[in-house]
């Protein structure tokens, strides 16, 4: 039976929270630290046999260790998100075949979505959770010249992003060799021209990025389900 791991990223700088909380993944959300929602969803789903929790500093390490699912290793984050992911990939046991990579600033992830992603990655080797873009998106070309992107083809990437271990390690090796900066893991896999499956998320699932997101997330977590 193949074994899977989850990399739980908690080392982000939280710069865009503009000092409103000392640590966004440990900030209280409906009375629990933000991090615990992702940890609980993964534990309930049963998709991961092993966890790598990526922390930023010693203070955070102690708090995260208390909430980390088991068995887990705590891994020091790097300067950028991709450095953190690479550190965590290097810390996984050798028998892990599939890897979930999840931003813990996305606390609305659900166990049934994790199970669905797990099923798809076994077939496709690369799958991400994403939602359709509702706005019309403009790309600034130069100065005040814009190009309007074809909305039907646009998806907003979320996490988890799930890959065969061999594929994601090779993809990040390519990123390192070319000294590129990527903002998600799928972008690394795209460099290898490997197809990426999408599991559409039809529910709003914002990433905690700015102070206003906390209230929005709290509302989404505590509201009664809509049909
Ligand atoms: C990976 C990601 O969540 C996909 O939307 C996003 O790119 C992470 O961005 P961040 O700036 O590292 O929070």
Automatic annotation (TrEMBL):
Transmembrane parts of this sequence: none
GO BP annotation list: isoprenoid biosynthetic process
GO molecular function list: 2-C-methyl-D-erythritol 4-phosphate cytidylyltransferase activity
CDD domains for the chain: CDP-ME_synthetase
Lineage: superkingdom: Bacteria
Keyword Nucleotidyltransferase: yes
Classification via InterPro entries: IspD (IPR001228), IspD/TarI (IPR034683), IspD/TarI_cytidylyltransf_bact (IPR050088), Nucleotide-diphossugar_trans (IPR029044)
Region forming the signal peptide: none
UniProt keyword Heme present: no
Coiled coil regions in record: none
Keywords: Nucleotidyltransferase, Transferase
Protein name per its UniProtKB record: 2-C-methyl-D-erythritol 4-phosphate cytidylyltransferase
Organism name: Cephaloticoccus capnophilus
């Amino acid at each position: 039976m193949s074994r899977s791991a989850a990399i739980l990223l908690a080392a982000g700088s939280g710069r865009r929270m503009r000092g409103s909380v000392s640590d966004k993944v440990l900030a209280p959300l409906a009375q629990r630290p933000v991090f615990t929602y992702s940890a609980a969803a993964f534990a309930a789903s049963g998709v991961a046999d092993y966890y790598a929790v990526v922390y930023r500093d010693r203070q955070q390490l102690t708090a995260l260790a208390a909430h980390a699912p088991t068995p887990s290793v705590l891994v020091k984050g790097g300067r950028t998100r991709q450095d953190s992911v690479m550190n965590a990939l290097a810390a996984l046991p050798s028998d892990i075949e599939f890897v979930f990579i999840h931003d813990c600033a996305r606390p609305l992830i659900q166990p049934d979505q994790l199970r669905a992603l797990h099923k798809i990655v076994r077939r496709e080797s690369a799958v991400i959770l994403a939602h359709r873009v509702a706005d019309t998106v403009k790309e600034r070309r130069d100065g005040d010249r814009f190009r309007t992107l074809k909305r039907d083809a646009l998806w907003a990437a979320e996490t988890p992003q799930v890959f065969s271990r061999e594929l994601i390690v090779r993809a990040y090796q390519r990123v390192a060799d070319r000294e590129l900066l990527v903002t998600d893991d799928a972008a690394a896999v795209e460099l290898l021209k490997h197809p990426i499956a999408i599991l559409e998320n039809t529910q709003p699932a914002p990433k905690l990025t700015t102070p206003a997101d906390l209230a929005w997330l709290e509302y989404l977590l505590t509201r009664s389900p809509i049909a």
